[in-house]
Amino acid sequence: MIEAGFNLVSQFLSELFASLVSLLKVAIRGRHATHLPDRQLLVCSVLGNGPSLKESLSEQFDFIRQTEIVCVNNFAHADIFTHLRPQDYVISDPNYFVFTEQTTDRDDIRRTLYVFLEQVNWPMILYVPHFAKGSYLLGKIEQGNPLIKVVYFNYTVVRGFKWLVYWLYAKGLGMPQAQTVIIAALALMINRKFETIYLFGADTSWHEEIRLNDKNQLLIKQIHFYDKPKDVSHQPVYSDAHRQRTFSMASQFLSFHKVFRGYEVLRDYADHRGVRIVNASAKSYIDAFERESISQSVNQ
């Protein structure tokens, strides 16, 4: 009984402290509140870039086309991008926003920019964190393609009392920790109040591709559905800008923990907002969301 009482007091004080820190962060960044557009349909599909998306696009293409489509990061590299013509696109990778015309080692970002400027000929909303404002990439997009509307979201990570955290989420003043772009995309779509959000291509299977070389360097092979197998190999995952040291195994698995914990936070928030999230990925390690077989039609 005494131990349980100490645990309750400790939890309360921890949540109180986290709430106060979150309110301080919001007070500093509150002028950057997120203002989201209305949903276009009742149902949306969030497409991750995991290898299993290839199977989902083959078998569920017609279903996905009937929903509002949300793509992320480098999805534009796929040939199917211009056939899907997604209404929404979320980029949260900070490397996109330090990219300049002089950058020589990010051909992937250059390719995404080219597709946005030269091939997107339909209305599309691009969601990026507020700190991206004024970046070279956003300047080129806003000047070069009037069909792409940029929406800035407030990526202020907030924690604390659940009632407070949910209120800050709903007001666009805070978000869960988005360890992956999928978490950011789901948080945004929950706040757009879709009735159902289907998640595809969220394999979350990076642990299957971890290797350790004879120098104790951590290597990961990051495979996307649009990659050609011969072009993908195990690469060091560096923890510093000078590429001298890779992440430790402990820190890498802590990062994985943050990903899966983020999905649990989103599940509870979606329940609070009356939004249903279905993990329809052909392969996935995410256990936070319900799974079900997908029919080929959807009420709109």
From TrEMBL:
It comes from the Bacteria. This is DUF115 domain-containing protein. It comes from Spirosoma telluris.
